[in-house]
Amino acid sequence: MNRKILVIEDNPMVVKSLEFKLKKDGYDVVVAEDGRTAMKLLSEGHFDLILTDLMLPFISGNEIIEFIKTEYPNIPVIVLSTSTQEDIITEAFTLGVDDFITKPFSPNELSLRVKRTLAKV
Amino acid sequence: MLRNKRLSPNFKINELSRKPKTNPTNLNSTLKHILFIDADRDAQSLFNEHFDRDNFLVINFNSAMGAIQHIKESKPVDVLVIDEFAKPMGAAQTLNYLIDELHFKGKVFVCSVDKEQFETDLGVYGVLKKPFDRDEFEKVEALLTEKNTAVESLYSLDYLKELSDGDLVFIEQSIQIFMDTVAPRIEEMKKVLASKDYQAVAELAHNIKPSFEMILNTRGAELCNFLAHHAKPADFKSYVEDLEEEYVQVEKQLKNDFSQEQNLS
């Protein structure tokens, strides 16, 4: 059975790319375009990994991360963000994220980091 | 008008965006579509490797049927390169069909091990001698770059090609998504700017920044980055105008390059 990844991202081009690459790598992909949808999806099914943006509609990425780390502490989280600001990255790591990838992602880097993070679970 | 505006030195465009925006051999239409029909994987690999650059998009076919379908659908072709013994009909018969039935008028190269020439009434421009060496590919490149003046290329498909291993459907869909989603967000930016909601402008800029980055449009990405993280209230109006101006130019070029694609409006 394929590992299932929840992608929380609101840029349609990035979503398309992530879906394409991750599906090609053999994962099942579910997309939430905002934090509320992500929370609903998390309550409805099991995910092996979460990839999330930090700036999202309705609920911020950091709030989502806090929620995930409280409610689903065993699901690893990789942050995807355009931000290269050190304070934002630091805050995300303080909240317990497992890795950080800058958009637009390098396809090989994404594959490797997802694989590596899932291997730790 | 505002193209030379100085941007903050703090900008760090992703390494993937660090591509030259201008190619001196650019054509009037920036993206050149090459249909390559050859079942030989080594030949495909060599050919693709040579044209794996800005402004060239190689569409590979193992048989002529896929290329015929491509041409039937009026998709863009700048040059067709076909192996002499391409399946199922061979080059001569395929070209006859294309010319007689589909009224194909494009330039053609035939790849051959032993022939120096091909019948000119088939519309063949030249012969590429097999096994290939790079000089042969220069003939195709020379044809594609002749009689043209340099035009600034505002985007590149390199990132999308790398991501998808050159999957044409994915590339076309991504370009369509770019055009469908960026314009409405810029319109939204103008609306929220009118009500001086600078935070909303910044969030919209943050949202569309990766879209510009993925087509390697550095200027659009820089403007988005500035609006998202560095702009002061007095800056917003002119930078949003610049962003819209950049988008309009990119869209124009994309529509021009993909104008014959059925699924791009």
Task: Describe the overall structure.
The complex is a heterodimer of chains A (121) and B (265). Chain A is an alpha/beta fold and 121 residues long. Chain A has a single domain, classed as 3-Layer(aba) Sandwich (Rossmann fold), CATH 3.40.50. Chain A is built from five helices and five strands; from the N terminus they run E-H-E-H-E-H-E-H-E-H. Chain A starts with a strand and ends with a helix. In chain B, helix 8 runs antiparallel to helix 9. Chain B has a five-stranded parallel β-sheet with strand order 2-1-3-4-5. Chain B starts with 31 loop residues before the first strand and ends in an 8-residue tail after the last helix. In chain B, helix 3 links the parallel strand 3 and strand 4. Chain B has 265 residues and is α/β, with parallel strands linked by helices. The interface between A and B is medium-sized, with 19 and 28 residues. Chain A: InterPro entries: Bact_response_regulator (IPR050595), CheY-like_superfamily (IPR011006), Sig_transdc_resp-reg_receiver (IPR001789). Chain A: Keywords: Phosphoprotein.
What's the mean pLDDT score of chain A?
A: 90
Strand fraction of chain A equals: 15-25%
| CATH homology group of chain A | Response regulator
* Helix and strand element order of chain A: EHEHEHEHEH
How helix-rich are the residues of chain A, as a percent range? Answer: 40-55%
Second-tier CATH architecture of chain A: 3-Layer(aba) Sandwich
What would the principal axes of the Cα set say about the shape of chain A? globular
CATH topology of chain A: Rossmann fold
Low-confidence runs of at least 5 consecutive residues of chain B: 1-28, 260-265
Distance between the termini of chain B: 28 Å
CATH domain topology of the largest domain in chain B: Rossmann fold
Q: H/E element string of chain B?
A: EHEHEHEEHHHHHH
Count of domains of chain B: 2
The largest sheet of chain A, given as strand count, sense and whether it forms a barrel, is: 5 strands, parallel
Largest sheet of chain B: 5 strands, parallel
Number of strands of chain A: 5
By CATH reckoning, the class of chain A would read Alpha Beta
Number of strands of chain B: 5
